[in-house]
Structures are given as structure tokens and as C-alpha cells.
Design brief:
The chain is an alpha/beta fold and 321 residues long. The protein has 13 helices and eleven strands. Helix 1 packs across helix 3 and helix 6 packs antiparallel against helix 13. The longest helix is centred in the first third of the chain and has 16 residues. The chain is globular, with a radius of gyration of 20 Å. 47% of the residues are buried.
């Protein structure tokens, strides 16, 4: 899921590589002193951009007839695996430099799964909080860094494939001296519908209950906007999944840093229509095959997120919250 840079236009380019940059973000950083255009600096950044969005080549993955037979006709009849994805969440799912092509380790996983079923992957960009309600109708499944929670398990079935914690991120050097254990009165940016938003809302209630100033919660539909809020000084700190936070820090150079230790490592999973046992079992078997044959690890290694690897895909694991 940033302090001022010495070369702010380079920062703008990297933000756009993180995800489809919003007009507000582009306007904000267009006021930078160096004043160059995207086209004028694109040649110097082209090699790093290509490397950052190339992804894993899934073209060699062959159809597994046994797995394909498990998938319901309602999904495979049109030859497409349609997946709801919030493409603002690098490095899991975001848009390449063309602003249209989804890339990321979740995207590569989607392509690999589709190939196993003999289908073509189609990642449909949507806002994070709109995906789960549309799984089984608008989308065959949802793959978008969904943390497994008891609340979400009431709405969909899950097939686990990754694990991630949560990380707080501030400007380099933490100039505002933010203490993540006491955010009362602070400006905190989060993405709408995430577990991080839920946690910050609970912290806000605790602040008010103890007679302290409430948290100024800045909830945005796109993780790009969350990151930019800290970059512009609009927010003091943001809270996101650990791989998202780590990628944001890496892509924006010396402008960001993690604050404190990672919090609450939990499973992430594919969202399947509630009660659709056939699809859930097919997805579980397909993910497990990718894990067992090494493809899964290669995908994660490509994006530098192998620390989140798991060795077993599970349907509806037990969770604490």
C-alpha cells in the first residue's frame, strides 16, 4: 500500500510508477523547482521503470486439465478469468507507465492461475472497498491484497496465498516526531476499506474515550493518494500493508522511512463468492500447485517480496479478528 526530494520531478515519476498517479498528485509536484516535464526525464528513468514493472513471464505455464475440470462452467465458459483488483497498491497490484496495464506480484499470480485453468487473465481495476461486494457477479474472484478477517469471511470465502503485516510510514527522519503508539491529535492517512483503516478508527475511539484529541483520519480510495498525503505534508503518517509500505519507501528514494516494527502479520487471500465451494477448491489446488512446483516463489522473488511467502494454501483459515 514523503519529505521533499532534491529532485522532485524524479519523485513524481516514481510515484506514477507506484500506481496511476492522481491529478492532485501531479499538480502538487508539478510546482517543483526543477520544472522538467515527464517526457524530458523519461529517458533517464526508462531502464529502472522497465525493470520495476516487467514482472514474471507466465507464458510457459501449461493448462492443467484436472484443475480446469474443477472450475465451474460459469467461470470458464467465456475463456476468461475476470479478477477484481485495486491497481493502486504497489508492488502487489498497480499500473505500469502507460497508465493502463496492471502489473505486480498479484497480477503475475493471476496470470499463472488463469494459465493453469487454460484461461486468459483479465484484471479489472476497481476501488478496494468495491471488490468484495462484486465477487461472484461482476468478478469471478477478487485478488487485491485482501487480509483475511472475520468480518470479510462473512461476505466471501478465502483462499490464502501470502502473509503480510502492517507498517507505519513517515517522512525521512520523522521530523514531526510521530509516536505510532500515540496518534491522538495526529493526521493519519489510510486507504479506504483496509484493515489499517479499521485499526486507526479503533485508535481514534480510544483517544476520544480517554479525553484526548481525536485522530484526523484521512481515508483515500487510492494508496497513491495515501502516500502523497504524507509527501505533501497533508498527513503526518500513513499505515499500510508491509510490502506496500516497503515498496513505497524503495521507490521514493530518501523521502520515506518505516516507523517502528511491523504489526500483526496475517494471511492474505483470494476472495471467492461465499458458498462457491467448487471455485474455492479449484483455486486452492491451483495455488498449491504453483507453490509446490516453484513458480510461486519465482513470482515473489521477481518483486522482492518473498518474505511474505507461505507454503500452504488454505480455504477460510481461522483468524482472531
Amino acid at each position: 500500500m514523503n519529505p521533499e526530494r532534491k529532485q522532485t520531478m524524479s519523485f513524481t515519476t516514481r510515484i506514477k510508477a507506484l500506481a496511476a498517479a492522481t491529478l492532485a498528485a501531479a499538480t502538487l509536484f508539478s510546482m517543483a523547482a526543477c520544472g522538467t516535464s515527464d517526457s524530458s526525464d523519461s529517458s533517464s528513468d526508462s531502464s529502472s521503470k522497465s525493470a520495476s514493472t516487467q514482472g514474471f513471464d507466465t507464458s510457459s505455464i501449461k493448462k492443467d486439465d484436472e484443475l480446469a475440470a474443477m472450475l465451474p462452467d460459469s467461470i470458464k465458459s467465456d475463456g476468461v478469468l475476470k479478477v477484481g483488483t485495486d491497481t493502486s497498491y504497489a508492488p502487489a497490484e498497480f499500473l505500469a507507465e502507460d497508465g493502463k496495464t496492471p502489473v505486480g506480484f498479484d497480477i503475475d499470480l493471476t496470470k499463472a492461475l488463469a494459465a493453469e485453468f487454460g484461461l486468459k487473465a483479465e484484471n479489472v481495476t476497481a476501488t478496494f472497498d468495491s471488490i468484495i461486494p462484486s465477487v461472484g457477479s461482476k468478478y469471478d474472484v477478487g485478488i487485491s491484497s485482501f487480509t483475511v478477517t472475520k468480518e470479510r469471511l462473512q461476505a466471501v470465502d478465502f483462499v490464502t496465498y501470502f502473509k503480510a503485516g502492517s507498517t507505519y510510514v513517515v517522512k525521512k527522519g520523522n521530523p514531526s516526531k510521530i509516536d505510532s503508539s500515540n496518534l491522538c491529535g495526529k493526521k493519519v492517512a489510510v486507504q479506504t476499506g483496509t484493515t489499517q483503516e479499521e485499526e486507526v478508527n479503533k485508535a481514534n475511539d480510544a483517544c476520544k474515550a480517554s479525553g484526548k484529541s481525536g485522530i484526523d483520519i484521512q481515508s483515500s480510495k487510492l494508496q497513491t493518494d495515501v502516500t502523497t498525503a504524507v509527501a505533501s505534508g497533508k498527513a503526518d503518517i500513513f499505515y499500510a500493508d508491509t510490502p506496500v509500505a516497503g515498496y513505497a519507501i524503495k521507490q521514493t528514494g530518501d523521502t520515506l522511512e518505516a516507523l517502528g516494527e511491523d504489526v500483526g502479520v496475517t494471511p492474505e487471500a483470494i476472495a471467492v463468492k461465499k458458498g462457491d465451494t467448487k471455485t474455492a477448491e479449484a483455486m486452492q489446488k491451483a495455488v498449491q500447485k504453483l507453490m509446490d512446483d516453484g513458480t510461486y516463489k519465482k513470482i515473489l522473488d521477481t518483486w522482492g517480496v518473498s518474505s511474505g511467502a507461505v507454503d500452504k494454501a488454505e480455504i477460510n483459515p481461522s483468524v482472531e479478528s
